[in-house]
Structure formats: C-alpha cells, structure tokens
Amino acid sequence: MMVGVEGSGKTTLLYQLFLGKEVSTIPTYGFNCQTITIPITNNTQGDKINSTIKFNLWDLGGSRTDQWQYYAQGTVGVVYVVDCSDESEIENARDCLWRLFEDTLNTLKDAVLLVYANKQDRLNALSVTEVKERLELEARGEGRRWHIQGCSATTGDGILEGMTWMATQVKG
Ligand SMILES: Nc1nc2c(ncn2[C@@H]2O[C@H](COP(=O)(O)OP(=O)(O)OP(=O)(O)O)[C@@H](O)[C@H]2O)c(=O)[nH]1
Ligand SMILES: [Mg+2]
C-alpha cells in the first residue's frame, strides 16, 4: 500500500513506475492500483541471478485515512510518500505516518517501510537526512525494517532505487 498526505506525489509516483513518465494528476478520492515489475539482481557465490518481482501497488488517496485497516490486509510493504518541498506539512506527515501503524497495529506488524523523500527536484526541498530526523524514523521505526529514499516522482530520479530495496526485503 502507498500512503502519504494529500499532494505528496503518490499518484505521480505510481504512474512514473508504471509508465516511466510524468502524468498530470488530480487529487485521488478513492484509490489507484497498478502491477509493477521490479528487476532484481542477486549475487550469490559469484553468480549473478537476475529475476523480477511483481508488486500490486495500491495508491490510496491522502484523504482516505479511514480505510487504512481495510487495505492493510495482506500488505507486505508500506510505501510512504513525503513532500520535502513543503516544510509546513512535515509534522503533519510525521503524525500521519505513525498513526498509520497505530491504527493497523497487528495487520502491519511485519510490513517493511519504504519512505520516499519526494520532490527533491525542488530547490527548497529538505534533504533526506533532515526528513529522516523530522519524521523521527530512527526512534519510532525501531524494530521494523525501513529505508528512506530521496526521489522525484516527476523526473523519476530515485524511484526505482526505492522499489529495488523493497524487492530485496520482500524476497528475503
Ligand atoms: N516538482 C515536483 N512536483 C511533484 C513531484 N511529485 C508530485 N508532484 C506534483 O505534486 C502534485 C500532487 O501530486 P499527486 O501525485 O497528485 O499527489 P497525491 O499524493 O496523489 O495526492 P492525493 O491523491 O490528493 O492524496 C502534482 O501537481 C504533481 O505534479 C515531484 O517529485 N516534484
Ligand atoms: Mg493521488
């Protein structure tokens, strides 16, 4: 499942992954879902093994926080998108992230967490390190496998890197 406050860039990110290009979006009131194929390369004993993994990526509109519990069923990984160019919303983004795990305590117990520090193409964007601190990832993410990836959903920079991390986590 892909979550994040309204306008953080979830739908743009979904279609960047699915189509490999920027699309124009309108606010999502329900959800979008696409199947994404991620290539992975494992180096085992000097042999390169190339494979792929498929994710059904559910992009939930930022206003639909009431439906988290429903979509959390069967979720192996949470993709959390943050707009790094809007500093005034960063505390809200932090609260939204940790409320998600409180509201779905048992369902997302073993889910891994990928945070996309999005809109890095904007000049005023907070750095990945700063966002990591402001979200309190190190303190509150303890006991969970998590990763933060800087990206731009409009240019595509960093998007595949993030999902590749997710793929290797899920494949074990
Ligand atoms: N500059 C820049 N703009 C972005 C980026 N990602 C998204 N945007 C813009 O941010 C706006 C909101 O993007 P959406 O993808 O619709 O955001 P969302 O998270 O799906 O929003 P909701 O559906 O309302 O929850 C759009 O105008 C996007 O073009 C980015 O990486 N850089
Ligand atoms: Mg959307």
TrEMBL record:
Keywords recorded for this protein, A-Z: GTP-binding, Magnesium, Metal-binding, Nucleotide-binding
SUPFAM superfamilies for the chain: P-loop containing nucleoside triphosphate hydrolases
Protein name: ARF/SAR protein
GO MF entries: GTP binding; GTPase activity; metal ion binding
Organism: Linnemannia elongata AG-77
UniProt binding sites for GTP: 4-11, 62, 118-121
Annotated residues for binding of Mg(2+): 11, 28
Family statement drawn from the similarity comment of this UniProt entry: Belongs to the small GTPase superfamily. Arf family.
